[in-house]
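# step 3/5: fold
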Amino acid sequence: MSRSVVLGNNPRCERCRYSPRWCICDGFQAIDCPLQVDVLIHHREFWRPTSTGRLINRVIPSSRGHVFRHDLPLNRAAIVQPGRTLWILHPLGDALPAGAPPENLQVLLLDGSWREAARMLHGVERWGRPVSLPMAGPSRYLLRDQQGEGKYSTVESLLFLLAALGRTQEHAQLRLQFELHVYAGLRARGEKAAAEKFLAESPVREAFPELLERLNQRRSRA
């Protein structure tokens, strides 16, 4: 039976949210993004170590996180930045507009289950323009069941947006941080075979060889 260090009351790293055994902070690389990225994260999602909304806030220092609760009103002034066009990413939004300068954009990502995201959209859709993205291919977020074809994690939505805007450098940097996060999550759950299969199709192996060697070292049991 696979051992899991994700469940239970194990100590966690304050940054990557994994246990010290699977800490990936040696691979942390901050990303300078021209977009203003904001994440509206459901309060149930906020404490989950697998949250990719919180991952975005960790690796993009200029991004901001805002907690959504049903019993508290949202503060538009605390989220919407004057002078930028606000896009709210959601599959039910308009097609991606062409020719928008990234430095003039603010993107609001809704981080939660699909039902939670629908409720969050209802609270913010009048603040800006709901936008859908051209997305294709299987999700790489193997830490959660994406509940059907064409469903993606919050960070994957941002990856699709960066690709659509031609921001290849930021896309590559964010993909590395995301896939390292997924790999560590699989290993922390004891899913070594799935982790190795994931790694075979990932740039993480080439980017972080020393970190991977450390993660794969056998640890003696006390």
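# step 4/5: annotate
The two ends are 19 Å apart (CA to CA).
# step 5/5: archive (pending)
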